[in-house]
């Protein structure tokens, strides 16, 4: 069955040249401008939908279906987070001893069977830190 879902987006000025970063994870800088995520597992605001240059409107999917650039093979329903290059990666569960974890930004819809830089379908939904075990 084919179906269509709506997407929630926001628009903010780009804080850098993002013309080659469509469908990658972004965050806001200290002045409220959109920039790429730069640390694995960090909190993103969503996925960049267009290709803005510095100062132009960056359209960001904050909730709903979106394409994402992936960093590795992923399966449907795998939870995703940003890697250090703003690409989707599998989520790392909270490691209590170190506090390391990934901020879950959604899940994969279509399987990704090849290596990095493939575009996949995902559902973007900010979910917080994934705990050490499912409850």
Give the number of helices: 0
Sheet/helix structural class: mainly beta
So what's the overall shape? Answer: globular
SSE order in H/E notation? EEEEEEEEE
**Proportion in helices:** under 10%
Distance from first to last alpha carbon: 32 Å
Number of beta strands:
9
When the domains are counted, the total is 2
Low-pLDDT residue intervals, each spanning 5 or more residues: none
Radius of gyration: 14 Å
Strand content: 35-45%
How would you sum up the major sheet?
9 strands, antiparallel
Mean pLDDT: 87
List strands and helices in order, with pairings.
Layout: E1 8-13, E2 25-28, E3 34-36, E4 46-48, E5 57-69, E6 79-82, E7 88-90, E8 103-108, E9 119-129
Antiparallel strand pairs: 1-5, 2-3, 2-4, 4-5, 5-9, 6-7, 6-8, 8-9
Descriptive account of the structure:
- The chain has 135 residues and is an all-beta fold.
- The chain has 2 domains: 8-63, no CATH class; 66-126, no CATH class.
- The protein contains no helices and 9 strands.
- It has strands at 8-13, 25-28, 34-36, 46-48, 57-69, 79-82, 88-90, 103-108, 119-129.
- Strands 1, 2, 3, 4, 5, 6, 7, 8 and 9 form a 9-stranded antiparallel beta sheet that branches.
- A hairpin with a 5-residue loop joins β2 and β3 (34-36).
- 34% of the residues are buried.
- The mean pLDDT is 87.
């Amino acid at each position: 069955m084919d179906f269509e879902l709506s997407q929630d987006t926001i628009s903010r000025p780009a804080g850098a040249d993002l013309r080659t970063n469509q469908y990658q994870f972004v965050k806001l800088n200290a002045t409220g401008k959109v920039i790429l995520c730069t640390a694995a597992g960090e909190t993103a605001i969503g996925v960049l939908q267009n290709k803005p240059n510095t100062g132009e409107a960056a359209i960001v999917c904050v909730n709903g279906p979106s394409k994402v650039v992936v960093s590795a093979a992923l399966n449907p329903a795998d939870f995703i987070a940003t890697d250090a290059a703003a690409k989707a990666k599998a989520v790392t569960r909270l490691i209590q001893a170190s506090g390391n974890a990934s901020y879950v930004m959604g899940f994969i819809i279509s399987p990704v069977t090849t290596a990095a830089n493939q575009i996949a379908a995902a559902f973007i939904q900010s979910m917080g830190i994934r705990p050490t075990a499912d409850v």
